[in-house]
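Recap slide: Peptide methionine sulfoxide reductase MsrA, sequence and predicted structure.
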Amino acid sequence: MMLFGRTPVLPTREEALVGRPERPFAVPERHTVLGNPLLGPYPEHLEVADFALGCFWGAERKFWQTPGVWTTLVGYQGGFTPNPTYEEACSGLTGHTEGVRVVFDPSVVSYERLLKLFWESHDPTQGFRQGNDVGTQYRSAIHTHSPEQAAAAASSKAAYQQVLTSTGHGTITTELLPAQDRPFYPAEAYHQQYLDKNPGGYCGIGGTGVSCPIGVAPAEG
């Protein structure tokens, strides 16, 4: 995992960029495809899920194309620097992932179904990279918003690890962490729904080709 001769390493809190108290740019009001607001507060019947699976351009499109998803937005999460810019996140000095926030109607699409899409849309065994995209910002992560989400994410990870192992793939490196105390900082306007605005734009998303079972991991033996 070399990038210009340097192995990606997560910074410590002390090493991370200082950041700023307020976002240094404006975020669009509405989703260009779904038409709904990007930023909360959201209607009470909806739930929020946060995923990181490589370059957020293609990752976001995967989720906005899913029935039951009310809105999506891309941003930076899981690091130390408050209100980072894209350039800062890509420097590797903020500790953030390139994340996707998915706001969904659980009566239409379950969190488990979103987890299945997450696992199958990237290779979660690659550490600080996705394909040719190398850097700590491209690592795989799930930031959960409830104990129920945390349990479902852990079960799906165990289930997918079993099928990955049986097909010759490596160990999942995905971080499973609570979203609490890990703010989601929305990205700049040009990143939001990037592949809707630029249909021929770069999309680095690609899975292992291995289907992920939905639900609790099967018992061994």
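Confidence is low (pLDDT under 50) at residues 1-5, 216-221.
The first strand starts at residue 47 and ends at 53.
(End of recap.)
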